[in-house]
């Protein structure tokens, strides 16, 4: 029977802690886990059947010389071997399904979380941290699921062997009952040490991965300023530190692996020595000696699974802790009003630190409404094209974050605190389009179609025209069907910027905030975009953050932002006449250009 394909919706994970998260993965597939436990128990318990059959063959057939009885016991041994083989196959097959389900489910909830927090994530977690969670931690958490099958079977097999040995010799059974927990106690300190070492190693690995990503992203700039060798040496030094920590983790792992094999072996030798002494004194028969050896040798398997399961549980707990930390990241800086909602999204009573219960979202304005940013004093009028020229680019980016609700602010939308409105409503109606927004791999048609799911080619063509990007499509060998790699690196910077602008226009949001949409294009293309953008967004609210005179000249209203505050407002021509600072800004330090703008 083929495995049941899990539902595309992974469910809601339990993020109260790493062990709760692991238990949630178990609860998501209870019947499969139950089958795995049954197969694991039957397989491990069945391992003790063959020693019994062998002892009967020795005592009833071999020692008495009864060939017929011996043949019957040999046949029973063969049948038991076939049955154990089938149980082993089913156990392994079921546990593989359990692990893959857990891995897929964890990957799904992590991906859903990354999509949910969006632009908040880079401020809350390093890229290297996210990469290591997706690349390693999810797999290690899935490996823990092995405990649900062979782990349960190991405990049952241990008890069964103890009972069987008790029927042969209470002394031998007592040795097993005391010896196996002693083995676990010997290895337990190593497991705790491994957890500490693994936690430090995984943290440093995430930090180093993040640093490598930063270096690669800024490699061209580093080479330009002569800093490539400096950062390379720093990265090499951090790599050596990580190598040392890796050796530390490897040393603990090697001791655990050695103890997992050696300690059960020593235990087996001690029990066999004791049973051999008992055979010499006549306390047990030769067949029972063979059975005891078989039972104890069989017991090595569940003991190994218990130790290995503990090893996997420690590593999985460290990995689950990192996954839970990532899942606990909330868009809290786009939560509720600063004076009524804490960073955990729980309302507080004014003047008190006690929680007052969850804050209910406030309905968004019923139609187009003004956006107002109290921090800067800017008001973006509904249905108009507003431009902001900022003396400091960082102030422009901060303004876009506040008005796009990517950070906590006092911004209002139609008089309603923006952070009180449901996040889905904000994302559905307000779009912030950065000039360096990510472009996923796929055909150009797929890249653009993400903003227009209905695939209306007429609207796509209109958006490309407004962004002056028709020539980009014409230059590609297969037009819209031409494949683009990640970030569309095969296109020039200006071409990528126009594709991003076309994608933003194609989404047709109620409020569109554009951040330097023409910084990488030439003046002629910029003039066309300025004219077409105004027509494409006629009657809808648009905010353009730019210092381009061509775009500023097409705006209904321009605001000059100095030190994060609006210093002056008016049309582009008005500000050129009465605001020297604005004139210098848009002239971009060029004296001739400043004179021409006067």
Automatic annotation (TrEMBL):
Origin species, per record, is Micromonospora echinofusca
- Which GO MF terms are attached to this record? ABC-type oligopeptide transporter activity; ATP binding; ATP hydrolysis activity
Entry's localization field: Cell membrane
Could you list this entry's UniProt keywords, alphabetically sorted. Answer: Membrane, Transmembrane, Transmembrane helix
> What is the protein named?
ABC-type multidrug transport system, ATPase and permease component
Region described as Disordered: 345-367
The answer to keyword Transmembrane helix applying to this record is yes
Q: What is its main location?
A: membrane
């Amino acid at each position: 029977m083929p495995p049941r394909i899990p539902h595309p919706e992974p469910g809601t994970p339990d993020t109260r802690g790493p062990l709760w998260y692991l238990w949630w993965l178990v609860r998501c597939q209870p019947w499969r886990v139950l089958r795995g436990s049954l197969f694991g128990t039957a397989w491990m318990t069945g391992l003790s059947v063959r020693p019994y059959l062998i002892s009967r063959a020795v005592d009833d057939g071999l020692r008495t010389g009864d060939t017929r009885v011996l043949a019957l016991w040999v046949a029973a041994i063969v049948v038991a071997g076939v049955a154990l083989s089938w149980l082993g196959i089913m156990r392994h097959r079921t546990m593989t399904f359990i692990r893959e389900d857990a891995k897929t489910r964890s990957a799904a909830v992590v991906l859903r979380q990354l999509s949910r927090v969006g632009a908040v994530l880079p401020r809350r977690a390093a890229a290297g941290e996210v990469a290591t969670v997706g690349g390693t931690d999810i797999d290690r958490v899935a490996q823990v699921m092995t405990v649900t099958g062979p782990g349960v079977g190991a405990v049952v097999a241990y008890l069964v062997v103890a009972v069987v040995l008790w029927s042969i010799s209470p002394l031998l059974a007592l040795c097993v009952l005391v010896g196996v927990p002693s083995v676990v106690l010997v290895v337990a300190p190593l497991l705790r040490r491994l957890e500490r070492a693994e936690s430090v190693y995984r943290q440093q690995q995430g930090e180093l991965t993040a640093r490598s990503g930063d270096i690669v992203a800024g490699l061209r700039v580093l080479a330009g300023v002569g800093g490539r060798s400096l950062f390379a040496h720093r990265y090499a030094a951090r790599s050596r530190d990580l190598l040392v920590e890796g050796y530390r983790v490897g040393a603990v792992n090697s001791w655990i692996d050695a103890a997992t094999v050696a300690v059960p072996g020593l235990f087996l030798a001690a029990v066999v020595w004791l049973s051999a002494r008992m055979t010499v004194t006549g306390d047990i028969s030769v067949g029972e000696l063979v059975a005891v050896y078989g039972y104890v040798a069989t017991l090595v398997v569940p003991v190994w699974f218990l130790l290995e399961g503990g090893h996997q549980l420690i590593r999985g707990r460290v990995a689950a802790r990192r996954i839970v930390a990532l899942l606990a990241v909330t868009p809290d800086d786009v939560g509720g009003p600063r004076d009524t909602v804490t960073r955990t999204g729980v309302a507080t009573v004014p003047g008190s630190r006690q929680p007052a219960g969850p804050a209910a979202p406030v309905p968004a304005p019923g139609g187009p409404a003004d956006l107002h940013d109290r921090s800067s004093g800017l008001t973006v009028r509904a249905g108009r094209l507003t431009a902001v020229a900022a003396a400091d680019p960082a102030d422009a980016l901060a303004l876009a974050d506040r008005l796009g609700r990517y950070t906590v602010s006092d911004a209002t939308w139609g008089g309603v605190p923006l952070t009180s409105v449901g996040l889905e409503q904000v994302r559905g109606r307000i779009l912030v389009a950065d000039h360096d927004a990510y472009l996923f791999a796929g055909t150009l048609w797929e890249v653009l179609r993400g903003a227009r799911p209905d695939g209306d080619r007429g609207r796509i063509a209109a958006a490309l025209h407004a962004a002056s990007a028709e020539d980009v499509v014409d230059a590609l060998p297969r037009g819209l069907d031409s494949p683009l790699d990640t970030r569309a690196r095969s296109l020039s910077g200006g071409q990528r910027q126009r594709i991003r602008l076309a994608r933003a226009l194609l989404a047709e949001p109620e409020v569109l905030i554009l951040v330097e949409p023409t910084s990488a294009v030439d003046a002629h293309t910029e003039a066309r975009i300025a004219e077409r953008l105004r027509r494409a967004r006629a009657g809808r609210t648009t905010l353009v953050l730019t210092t381009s005179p061509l775009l500023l000249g097409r705006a209904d209203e321009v605001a000059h932002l100095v030190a994060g505050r609006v210093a002056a407002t008016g049309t582009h021509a008005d500000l050129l006449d009465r605001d020297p600072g604005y004139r210098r800004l848009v002239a971009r330090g060029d004296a001739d250009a400043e004179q021409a703008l006067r």
